[in-house]
């Protein structure tokens, strides 16, 4: 009888074990099935990080301390070590990418279904892959326990509204905002004053293209020049954004038209005709910095974050120059465009589970909230996480005038609407056409009409091919 009782207990234990395995397997199966069918991905708010399980997560970043890769690597190692005092079971491996090839590697990893868990997207707000990119707001859903205890998750309220808006598509937030960087041109205040330019007005309100053109003529009369880099098409996209225009609509239609393209290139062409640039425009890229520091160039553009930091460092050491940030001239509302960098979170095609995703989010949040102050101060960019901004204002090494301008412009800038990941791929192909035509405008003897027609015709051909391929799928 005793043996029979033992047998029954063993039988019951075996049945319960089988039910548990089948139940867990079914949960995993349905989760993976749901992902492959393209249905809405969710993260269970009830799932917690298992303190007895080891999680292996990958972080792809860039060596953000320019010229000091080893120092940045040491910063990352210390940050991971500090994080492990909170989560010793979450092991983080990092990879520092090349600024030139980093994005290509990310796209390759997505095509293989094996992206990194976290990617530091320093190039602006983008939805790169709707299938594998994880919306951040999924981690902000309260669990039933938190609801019962009236615990309010106010994570969203801790971030700059414009930064969140820049990362929002179809009511989902596709990245954890890192920094805000308004788009500026750089001017020499000492020179600009000689043309009676109302610098305070521009700093507060911005200026139109007509105002900029008039002042450029006044500067030319006094033998000062404007220098635009003919090899950097960022200037075109800044002017496009300043006119509140995107390249492709969410429906995959071309938003560029003859009027807006002609307006941008004709405005640039009039500057060439008025000879406000140095004599050899094809060599302006080589003269941009030397002429600025020698007090010959009144305004230089376009300026990226790295070049801006170089200018900040040298500004106080050059007597001929007093650096000032200038809003990009636009058509009407005087708003600058705003770039928002972010941490993008991904899942792999072979999904590792909701607890793994939550472990990934904890490290992303740690870097974004606990360590971002160091990076933001070093790069002199405003953190998007609001609790860090007051300390940044006190400690960042910038002139008060420039600091105030960064803050003011960040709070009143225009953001470019996020587009779908399919449209992003299409948009990148169209940008290749624009980039080449931008160079051709400066380097070849082509008319504005020839430049505009080539952009429109080639871009529309890409749109048509994309539409046909979508219909055939």
UniProtKB/TrEMBL annotation:
<dbReference type="Pfam" id="PF01547">
    <property type="entry name" value="SBP_bac_1"/>
</dbReference>
<dbReference type="InterPro" id="IPR006059">
    <property type="entry name" value="SBP"/>
</dbReference>
<protein>
    <submittedName>
        <fullName>Carbohydrate ABC transporter substrate-binding protein (CUT1 family)</fullName>
    </submittedName>
</protein>
<dbReference type="InterPro" id="IPR050490">
    <property type="entry name" value="Bact_solute-bd_prot1"/>
</dbReference>
